[in-house]
Amino acid sequence: MSRQRPETAELAPRATDSELYSWFVGSQEDPATVRLLYDYLYCANRPSGDVRAFHDDYLPRAMWYFDYLEQADAQYASLLQSRKLGLLERGWRVEAARTDPPDNGRKGKKRPSKADSAKADKAEELAEFARRNLERLPNFEQDLFELLDAISKGFAVSEIMWRLDGGKWVVDCLKSRPQRRFSFDDKGQLRLRKPLGERRSRTLRGEAGRPVPPGKFLVHVHMSQHENPLGQPLALKAFWPHWFKKNAVKFWSVFMDRFGMPTATVTYQPGAKGQRDEALKVLESYMSTTGVVLPEGVRLELQDAARGGGAGVYETFVEVMDSWMAKLVLGATLTSAEGRHGTQALGGVHADIREDILRWDGRSLAATVGTQLIRWMVHFNFGAEAADDLAPQFYFETDPQVDLGKQVQIDKALARELGLKLPLADLYKKYGVRPPADDEEAIGGAEEKKQQAQAKPREQAPPGAPQQKQAAPPGMEQLAALQGQLEPTNSEESRP
After folding, report:
1. Alpha helices of 206-306 — where are they, by DSSP H?
2. What is the mean pLDDT of residues 354-381?
């Protein structure tokens, strides 16, 4: 049975719709346009038979506006960048699929059979294959950054360029595509809209575009819903804070122009010939130079205009709108600015809220990469059965930092006081320590303590003396050695 081959042609080249920018000059910042998108997304006042109008007009216009918002509002762009980079700096990993069933705490777990061992080896092979392919991509972190554009626009699409390398289908690169080139059908499946020139000659006849081949486009949706495949774009919610702030800045500029400097007045002798023209020249010279020359009979005076309120009201209003955007993008305000009020404890609570959002973004994007990109790697190279059962898992390192010193104490209590057996492999992984090779020199361990006990002569305890404690279970020496290495570091980090 032959395996399915991926589509290798480039289906959405960039040059096909570059002319669409020609008529967009920022005029799409129209509340009526965004309100139409609101009505469609949230099923409110949606007119019947508007599918073609939505895909041909409303959705592209909304995506253009979302692009404009990120370019026009520095606060919004900065918050989005912080949220994206905050996730990507954590790093990522690829792990093999779990092949052993959970034991649910049952005793007497049977040893894995040869078939189980072969399945586990196959899962590790697939994970290594996917890991190498992702690491060889030209700029995989940039590709992930572009997929996180779904946070602002609801969804993001990247075209996967496949190539054959040594008999294996590998990803050559990922090319981010603008959202306005795509739409979704009534079943939530991605469809590619026709280029502008093609649409002018042939109408879509009410369709949302043509279907795309499987495994060709990587689609990441932000907080998708069953009835809304377009996701929940933050830019749609940021429209009103930006719109109010933009108008406030406009009036603030008018205020500064009017009241930021005194008003110049020129008086001249009435009835004098040419005095009015001389007075106007004096005003023009005053506005453009630091000094003026006054003809005889002309007097220049500066007058402060009466003002009903200070410029602080505009500044306060703009700060409130920026705080609204901070709450929208980061979940809190003290994580994006120092704030006028607040305590260290409150800042910690807000930081925790930011961590929750970061972990959500990580799980969402990891699910997209794992269930689409990595699964297609396995499907095209190892078959559908391997993709269903043994597809590797993709994760971001978003777990909160663990105090290793406290964790050593917990593991010692579990092993010594409760008598639980802790797998050494799990301990090595938890503390980031590489297991030593058989012929490698190492310190610690039960073998070293046994040698020390044999070298030291054992003293005979007198009658009635308390018996010596039994030897610690295997692995306790490793925990003690780790605790000695970790405690100085943790104590230094905990100092104020």
Report:
1. 234-237, 239-259, 275-288
2. 93
157 bridge partner residues: 177, 219
Non-local (6+) Cβ contacts of 437 within 8 A are: none
Residue 270, pLDDT > 80, answer no
Gap between the Cα atoms of 496 and 494, Å rounded? 6
Domain that residue 69 falls in: 1-100+114-261+310-397
Spatial CA neighbour of 13 closest among 168, 201, 198: 198
CB-based contacts of 19, cutoff 8 Å, min separation 6:
196
227 and 327 co-located in one domain: yes
377 and 281 in a common domain: no
109 within domain boundaries: no
Look up tokens 């980031």; give the residue.
Answer: 432
Q: Strands 217-221 and 155-165, how do they pair?
A: antiparallel
Name residues whose C-beta falls within 8 Å of residue 30's C-beta, 6 or more positions apart in sequence.
Answer: none
Instruction: Give the residue among 233, 248, 256, 235 at the shortest CA–CA distance from 320.
Output: 248
**Phi-psi map region of 273: left, alpha, beta (phi>0 left; psi -120 to 50 alpha):** beta
In this structure, the answer to whether residues 284 and 212 fall within a common structural domain is no
449 closest CA partner among 484, 415, 476: 476
Of the candidates 145, 138, 139, 140, the one whose C-alpha atom is nearest the C-alpha of residue 82 is 145
Greater model confidence, 459 or 112: 112
The residue type of 327 is K
Are 222 and 340 part of one and the same domain?
Answer: yes
**Side chain identity at residue 439, one-letter code:** D
Residue 25 has what pLDDT? Answer: 43
Query: Does 381 lie in the same domain as 318?
Result: yes
pLDDT in tens, 211-248: 899 999 999 999 987 777 888 999 988 988 998 998 88
Question: For helices 476-494 and 446-455, what crossing angle results, to 10°?
Answer: 110
Asked if residue 132 belongs to a domain, the reply is yes
Distance CA 450, CA 491 (A): 32
Entry pTM: 0.71
Q: Are residues 280 and 167 in the same domain?
A: no
Residue 108 located in a structural domain: no
Q: Are residues 174 and 69 in the same domain?
A: yes
Cα-flanking dihedrals φ and ψ of residue 264, to 5°? Answer: -90, 130
Q: How far is CA 441 from the centre of its chain?
A: 43
